Amino acid sequence: MKFWQKVFLSVLILFVVALNIGMFTVMHFTYKEQLSSVKQRAKGEAYFLRNSISKDFTNLEETSTLTRDKKETIYDSYKTYYMEQNVFLELWSGNSLIGGTFDLNIESRDELDTVDNVQNLLIREVDQEEYLFLACNLEEPYENHILVIAYPLTELTNTRKQLVQMVIATDIAITILLSVILYLIIRKLMKPLKRLSEATGEITQGNYSQEIHIQSQDEFGSLAKKFNTMSERINENINLLQEESDRKQQLIDNMAHELRTPLTSISGYADYMRMAALSEEERIHALDYIIAETKRLEKLSRTLLMIADIREGVLTKTAVSTEQIKIYIQNLFHNQLKEKQILLEVNCEIETIEASEVMLQCILGNLIENAIRACEVEGRITVTFYNHEGTCFTVEDNGIGMEAEEIAKIMEPFYRVDNARSRKHGGVGLGVTLCHQIVKVHQGELRYESEVNKGTKVIVTFTT
Amino acid sequence: MANILIVDDEESINELVKLNLKLVGHTCDQAYDGREALDMVTKGPYDLILLDVMLPFISGFDLMKKIKETPVIFMTAKDRIEDKIQGLTSGAEDYLVKPFEILELIARINIVLRRTKTENTVFKLVDMEMDREGKVVRYRNKEIDLTPQEYCLLEVFVINQNLALSREKLLELAWGYEYEGDTRTVDVHVQKLRKKLGLEERIKTVYKVGYRLEV
Question: Which residues cross the membrane (chain A) (predicted)?
Fold first, then answer.
């Protein structure tokens, strides 16, 4: 059963029950009230009759003897009047009946056994109609005479029947009206829930960008707001995952390409040497390519291993002397710098830097190599070690620079700013990725500032 | 035989393709990135373009949209089926995945050229003349009767001139994969060709490799 149906039914049942209890209670009290007023009236009547008859008997006895015929005459004078009123009378003298208007089929006469005064009342059903019976004895010295009065309660029962019918009719009418109104109200209240359920269904189907517009300020409103936030989050996360998986795919594509290219060259040149009749010069030319490509593969595997090592290995930091690093750099790039006539300047504002020495050499080596590649002949490269919210160093060149889009891309593995040129120098396109990995394990930050034709500045900060 | 543009940002591969194509008689131009390639395509008419997909500046697929009439063969490391479909539906004649055998490249180039290029199908060497269109071979201006198998073998030699071909490769190329004959069949046919066409000095036996038609 649906929730709205449950609410609908519970409210409806509760209301109908309450309504009926209320109405029947009112009815019951009304009936009781009416009955008691009838009783009161009967009592009054009985009292008066008892008095009158007793008095009549006394008066009669003062003048003559009170015979049974005389008693009957007195009784008859009252009887006629009360017959008209639709009240039945009966007068007993001891166990013998003086007169009675009861043409009713009454089986037992309990009231006669308990006669004492006017208080004795009895309601009895005779021929499917209710009567109020009242028995009393006359005043002294006629106490052996019993007077019985019977009031029919037809009017009262009729009223009650009519009332019951009215209540049932009202019940049905109100129930129908209420169901319609209740249905409309619940439907309206449930509308946001329906909308929410539909949106959830959509999300299950894979449409993650769902937004629900619910104006109300109630629980549904706040649920809708939370739902919107949730679907937004899910959407964001899905997109992130998608991007991540795209990036992984891209990495695998690139990796396959990087492995395949040198292999194609190597096997191609070997085949070429086997198939063609070559001069000594051509032979060496081909062999050079084979050797260069083999070296490239070797370097690629070495770099990939290094990245994996850095990611998983333990970081052992020491205080590395900047002066020693300076000497290392200058020795390492001596030939390359001379060849391109590039001036390398190293400023050491701090004496030591907390880092893994091997990794520091690696990152600087890569950054300076890139800087040399970016520089024209007679360029200038400045390396500065300094302190600014942690130990920092910058590698700055006045080379060709990069556009903003390129800066975003250089972090990607296998991306090369200038493919042909980079390959000629034996680059494998993993330098910046490697640097990034190193900075990451040092919990540092690597930032690029670059302007086309002005130069590039790499800022590395080690926060720890 | 044909004027071919090679576009590949890998210098070593670009050079390798050029060296081989030169040996089999084609003239080649080389481009190393998308812009350079576009420049050269608009300047000179080429019989065929060998195009890499991942290129600096303009990708091979984008470049393909700008190449109107020249036939194109993609040669790329992208081996996913989606890439292949994209390459072939963009109007390329063929799609070759790296690493490929150079003989395969030559074979595919020939298939494309035979379809698109009609002139210059006569091959001359010393006193021999081969009209590949008419399927006629002359020696000293006299028509020589060659068996279909001999003709096929000669054609394989001409297409892969200056390259040594193993007996197995010759069987595969001239007789087809299904042929289950002995490699000595190749020796017998080579002897016949040498004798009939006076190519004793031209079809060389290469030690431990096979045979090579030297031009």
Answer: 7-31, 163-186
